[in-house]
Amino acid sequence: MTAHAAAAPREVAPQGSVGVHTQKLGMWVFLVSEVMFFTALIGSYIILRWGTNAEWPEPRTVLAIPVTALNTFILICSSVSMVKAYAAATRDDQAGLRKWLLLTVLGGATFVTVQAFEYHHLIEKGFLPSSGLFGAAFYTMTGFHGFHVTCGVLSMIWVTIRAFRGKYAGGKFQGIETIGLYWHFVDLVWIILFTIVYLI
Amino acid sequence: MHWWFPGNASSVGGKVDSLFYVILYITGAVFVLVEATLLVFLVRYRKRSGRTATYVEGSTRAEIIWTSIPAVILVSLAFVSQPLWSKIKDSDTYPRDATHLGLEAKQFEWHVTYPGPDGKLGTDDDFMKRDSIHLVVDRDYVLEMTSRDVVHSFFVPAFRLKQDIVPGMDIKLWVKPTLTGTFELACSELCGLGHYRMRGVVIVHTPADYAAWLVSQGEATPADSAAAASNSGMGTP
Amino acid sequence: MTATAGAALPGHAHADDRSFVRKYVFSTDHKIIGIQFLFLSLFFLLVGGLLAMGIRWQLGFPGQPMPLGGWLPQGVAPGGVVAPKTYIGLVTMHGTFMIFFAVMPLLVGVFANYLIPLKIGAPDMAFPRLNMWSFWLMIPSGLLMTASLFVLGGSAVAGWTVYAPLSNVPDYTGVHLGQQLWCVSIVIFGASSLLGSVNYITTVINLRAPGMTWFRLPLSVWALFITAVLAVLAVPVLAGAVIMLLFDQTIGTHFYLPAGGGQPLMWQHLFWFFGHPEVYILILPAMGIASDVIANGARKPIFGYASMVWAMVAIAFLGFVVWGHHMFQSGMNPTLASAFMVSTIVIAVPSAIKVFNWLGTLWRGSIHFTTPMLNALAFVSMFIIGGLSGIFMASTPVDMYIHGTYFIVAHIHYVLFGGSLFAIYAGIYFWFPKMFGKQLDERLGKVHFALTFVFYNLTFFPMHILGVGGEMRRIYDPTVYEYLRPMQPINVFITVSAFLLFTSQLVMAWNIVRTLARGKQADLNPWRDCGLEWTVASPPPHGNFATTPTVYHGPYEYSVPGAAEDFIPVNQPPAQVAETRR
């Protein structure tokens, strides 16, 4: 048996485990660390904006709220398609799985692309990371979020390719749930960011 | 003694020292007791032929005792420390009639601003001295501290006082010297390459000496100072 | 789905036909990864120690040319004399290397990786490939940090605590690239730490063998598990803070710069929010290792096992609400400081509980003074001192005097060296035979222990006196201050002791080299320990267990009345134990 490199038993539920599949548990732990990372950034934003008397422009005078609102909607839709993808996987509906995964990739890629255009537009207007605390915080927070979405999109593409190769057929759909968790997390962080950075 | 605290020269130093000694006696006693117990156990329960260890899993009673006693001692310590802390650091408790001095810390100097004859900081008759703070014994002062660049820390060991100075913040510290003499001031927060030589002195005068100092600096005429020297404690030096 | 005893679950130990590179270099085997961490961290322990020698030379003999100092570039040490900028670089990098590249990887990278799967009866970690990445990310991180010593402008000089604005404005120090490399290295380190922690947590939760319930886990595993939880929650905050610092240095942001509306104090809050749990990351695994070794050495169960577990949980939890005690004098709101004083004082209680339980374990034991046991006992006795000295700084008015002085340096080193490092040594001597199949020489081990213990105390205890005398930290030349000059003989004494301490470590290095080269094969279970790792070969095969073990007993069944041996391995079937009782 040469599979020992990945030999740690994943499907076995040994003594006293919490009944959560190992891969999913690992993703949850990873997401906790991500929550702490974004908490550091969001916490800093809150302190800098409302805990000091630093100069702070009204976000809507700088940022394009309508476009970003649409972009938010697209990202939320991609979360919906992710849910549908997982549902299809549990039913062993491979065609459905592939369709919904492709739509998720599309939604995520669109989000990142629109964000990139937004950045370009803002930089042309002269709004940079060095443009006051708002600029610094805006680019840092949305930039790291965008980075996380990009990694998500790339992972999603890889999962989609594997789905086309039938790797998630016959009940072996754990991987879909795992990446789904990451995707929903990234979406949730965006909703928080959009509210705090753009809307309030 | 040169290998211990410098002599206390401020109004709060005595209380800080007392608190230190209380903690020293308690921790010292605990140290001796616990380490001695450890040593006794190591000798008494060392491996010897004909003796095996006694299988004991624990004792809830012991746990309760050695949790509650330290807890009580430690929490009492917090209660004892709190009032002194508030008195030293809470600017709301500072004497209203204290003389205010400005202290700007920068790499690697202390710029001290004196209020001048009008007794008010921020007016035209203020004057600045570098690296030396002149005070009158038994008077209340409030240092209004700022930093021009990085985080510094105002530390006068003889006063037992320390206060970090963070750029962008206005920091106040109450000081009341109780001994005349010259006391060293050190920066105690790493502030760059010259941190080690960011030294100053605090010179505590009698009122008469202070008046003489003012004259010698050209900041007052002998007449001004003679009049001022007979004042007792109100603002103007 | 529960498994019945032994037979139902196949094990994974088997013949290994992989190439040398896959087996020993890019290995996914947790044991190899643990050993890789061991050699990497021992190397950085040496680097940290050398940097400390530079610090001590300057403090003991300010302005004197250092031995071999002539070899250093003139900018760094003109005429062989350490320059002021070099000095604060030494101070910064000593702390950085010791904390991130020596103690953390030694405690966590080595022992979590090596011990967890073996002690819980698993064939490997939950995510072996991620585990491999966890080690290999340390390489670029370590390289960047080491490179930062040699770049133009010099290494970072703002202390391991990197306070802004000293750290994010190059003009204040003349350091550009050195500080930026520091930041990038730490972010990569954070990723390495995270991948490890995800593994440790998931593995302990999900891969325990049948019968290995939570309250049968050895305290070393509990400690490493809790430490991993701390890391998952704290390290990302450091990453966020450091990234913002890096942006201040590179892309013109002003997060921590007052000129742009930023807040230097925010750096301190973010850093110490990480920094305090970090010190518990540095001590909890040491406590766990000490517990395993002391129970074994005293031939007795750990006294109050459940209390020991809950004490560690309490320390971890409280560890998140005490960070302000590093900032008492920072200008923070005094009432907030008082709140932190209370939480700080409370956290002393669970630590005290642990000390008393270790004493309780020794009480009525049968103590074998082996090298690991001596080191574990030193851990307890030195941790007592380190913990007690912490009480002085918990009291805010007293902290006002001792903050930023050598009293703090004494405290740090009593808990990190007297505590963590002695426990690390205990762990190395204890598990070396299992790792390498050869046991370190006991006589050399005891010599190493004795020399280290004596010179360590001679080096660090006098620092308490320096602190009470008012000597500040990070000072290039104490003799600038008149009130410090009388204490200069203490500095000389400490310096000489430190050199002797450093040299004494060569005894252990020699022991390791000699044993690996020509030591004889060790017994399977030389310490007569109950743990699962001692039931397999030394070193264990890939996959660890031929069949998945079933656990029947608690972790410290030593000197059980009526048993044939003075220890019962955790997987010994009850029928077998019962037979021996007749």
What's the number of domains of chain C? 1
- Under the CATH scheme, which architecture of chain C would be assigned? Up-down Bundle
Main sheet attributes: strand count, strand direction, barrel closure of chain C: none
Largest sheet, strands/sense/barrel of chain A: none
The CATH architecture designation of chain A is: Up-down Bundle
Name its key features.
heterotrimer, A: 200 residues, mainly alpha, Four Helix Bundle (Hemerythrin (Met), subunit A), 6 helices, 75% helix, 0% strand, elongated, disordered N terminus, B: 237 residues, alpha+beta, Helix Hairpins, Immunoglobulin-like, five-stranded mixed beta sheet, disordered C terminus
Outline of this structure?
Chain B has 237 residues and is of the alpha+beta class. Chain B has helices at 13-44, 60-89, 207-216, 222-229, and strands at residues 99-106, 109-114, 127-130, 132-136, 141-147, 152-156, 161-165, 171-175, 181-187, 199-205.
Structure description:
- The complex is a heterotrimer of chains A (200), B (237) and C (582).
- Chain A has a single domain, classed as Cytochrome c oxidase, subunit III, four-helix bundle (Four Helix Bundle (Hemerythrin (Met), subunit A), Up-down Bundle), CATH 1.20.120.
- Chain A is 75% helix and 0% strand.
- Chain A contains six helices and no strands.
- Chain A has helices at 22-50, 59-62, 65-90, 94-125, 132-164, 174-199.
- Residues 1-16 of chain A have low confidence and may be disordered.
- Chain B is an alpha+beta fold and 237 residues long.
- The longest helix of chain B is centred in the N-terminal third of the chain and has 32 residues, at 13-44.
- With 582 residues, chain C is mainly α.
- Chain C is globular.
- At the A-C interface, α1 and α5 of A face α4, α6, α7 and α8 of C.
Topology:
The complex is a heterotrimer of chains A (200), B (237) and C (582).
Chain A: H1 22-50, H2 59-62, H3 65-90, H4 94-125, H5 132-164, H6 174-199
Helix pairs in contact in A: 1-5, 1-6, 3-4, 3-6, 4-5, 5-6
Chain B: H1 13-44, H2 60-89, E1 99-106, E2 109-114, E3 127-130, E4 132-136, E5 141-147, E6 152-156, E7 161-165, E8 171-175, E9 181-187, E10 199-205, H3 207-216, H4 222-229
Parallel strand pairs in B: 1-5, 4-10
Antiparallel strand pairs in B: 1-2, 2-3, 5-8, 6-7, 6-9, 9-10
Chain C: H1 20-25, H2 30-60, H3 84-120, H4 128-136, H5 138-147, H6 177-206, H7 219-250, H8 264-298, H9 305-318, H10 334-362, H11 371-394, H12 396-402, H13 406-436, H14 442-460, H15 462-468, H16 488-518, H17 574-581
